[in-house]
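Page 42, continued from yesterday. The earlier attempt failed because a stray header line got pasted into the input along with the sequence. Redoing it now with the clean sequence only.
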Amino acid sequence: MGLRTKFNLVMLLVFALGMGGIGLIADEVLQRNAREEILHTAGIMMESAMAVRGYTISEIRPLLEVQMTRDFLPQTVPAYAAMRNVHGLRERYPEYTYKEATLNPTNPASRATEWEAGVVEHFRNNGDSKELIGERMTPTGPSLYMARPIRIENESCLVCHGQISDAPPTMLARYGEANGFGWKMQEVVGSQIVSVPMSVPLQRARSALTTFMISLGAVFAAVMIILNVLLHSIVIRPVKRMAGIAHEVSMGKLDAAECQPHGKDEIAVLAESFNRMRRSLVNAMQMLNETP
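This time it went through. Structure tokens are written below.
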């Protein structure tokens, strides 16, 4: 096995190990960054919904109090306003969802599904839990969800959701008396749930990893070519020349040309030493031939 082959095999082994390690680290970093991007998006959606809720309570509801005596207006309900706000986003990005999932809602559209009910039960069973982040599969691919509990902390909520007798007649006329009542203070009745698709950020992470690994492979290939050229011109060619001269001298050709060292590196020093050894050997053989 030649020197070049050994050198390339060692370099390929180092490259394979390095590429494997770098690939694992880069994949972990890119996946973590993609997840952080998804969480950031979910957090923005959640805070947007909270801002709409606050705006509805502080500015919209007071303006419609008089109209509420004649007809119940869902626009005064913070949950309705928040979900309508996200509805406009979903027209362009249908995979992004926001829902105030409730176990016993006034509006049937807000009733928690099976998996949403599990999220609500988590908050009911873990009173100190303020936020829950998880992943689930959807028909469009993996989705990350961020959930926060809906806890009754304001007695004004019980006006509409406490006793049926306390509820506004206009609300009863619109939604009936079957659902949305019996809530209690400090009770977790539902959960705000934001769902953000993971497929796009994860695909971008995979594409970035592929581009990075291809670029790294191209750089390694260029380095290998350059190193092979240098290895041939600096090491292999001078050594082959010295080996050829040594072979000629060993076969009795005493007038073989000497090596021409270039520079002052180790190969040049070796060539000079080889030339001295060759001259000494030629002189010794000439002396032997002249001896009667």
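Notes: The chain has two domains: 35-197, 207-290.
Reminder to self: strip header lines before submitting.
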